[in-house]
Amino acid sequence: MDNSKGSKFPKVFFESLPQDPVALAVKFSKKFSLFDRGDKVLVAVSGGKDSTFLLYMLSNFRSKFGIKEVVCGHFNHLTRGEESFRDENFVAELCKSMGIKYKIGRAQRVLKTESEMRKERYNFLDLTAREFGATKIATAHTLDDQIETFIINLIRGGGFFSASGISIKNTDICSVAVVRPILVIRRSKILSFLRERQIPFIEDSSNYDLSYLRNQIRAFLNLLPDEIYSNLLSGFMKFWLSSIEIVDFLAQVIKEEKAISEKISPLIKKQIELFEEKNGKINFEELKRAF
Predict the structure, then answer these.
(1) Backbone angles phi, psi at 244, to 5 degrees
(2) How do the domains of the chain map onto residue ranges?
(3) What's the CA gap between 127 and 117, in Å, rounded?
(4) What average pLDDT does this structure show over 230-245?
(5) CA distances from 20 to 24, 82, 182 (A)
(6) Over the stretch 205-216, which tens digit does the pLDDT of each residue have?
(7) What pTM was computed for the model?
(8) The CATH number of the domain covering residues in 21-289
């Protein structure tokens, strides 16, 4: 069997990583083909440090990514009273100061769950991308977000496939691809970058609401000494990217080697099939229904 063909992902690239977050994002984006030359990119911006960094980076270093133009979309969930409008105004002023076209959206109904907020947000981003003629949507998920998602998936019973986490590139959620160019960058690097350049951003008070599972996990991880957490992130990144390679390889084996396929348990086989179908994103509820 020829293992060199058919892989959706290139070989791991973490042997020599740049320390500069912009250089790292450029390398990551090129390795995983997140952008095509001439792309018009809609950046989802909340006003927090991660999305502010993403907007600043893609706008000011467009040529490094092969991007033609950057536009911005901000969705107001209307869940935090005056703070929600503060965020909206901040993003509008930020875009004006940077000369970036933007659109503000607001929820048309009461959003009570994270799932509802996510659905409405991506619906808005999809419509906005079409309105601007954007060819990609970029979101500001970081390596810290990825390890938090991994732990959430473990809690939900995802096993090894918990590492799939947040997709590097998602072609199912919107009419254009949703890409995450800073998914290998740490929040601490982003914060240092913004502070060094005196780039303003805002804090979302909901990030400290411990009624959300993600925030509980984040609070736990924050208890770790900096050195241990730093090493944990480094090790996790290698595990996460390697696991994508492994699952991609196993999917090839199952398709091409019937004898091996018959020896794999139905549960594992179904997980691999779902992983492939969903571009590296497993719906654990769907998996449970299958058995």
Answers:
(1) -65, -45
(2) 21-289
(3) 16
(4) 90
(5) 6, 36, 12
(6) 888 889 889 999
(7) 0.85
(8) 3.40.50.620
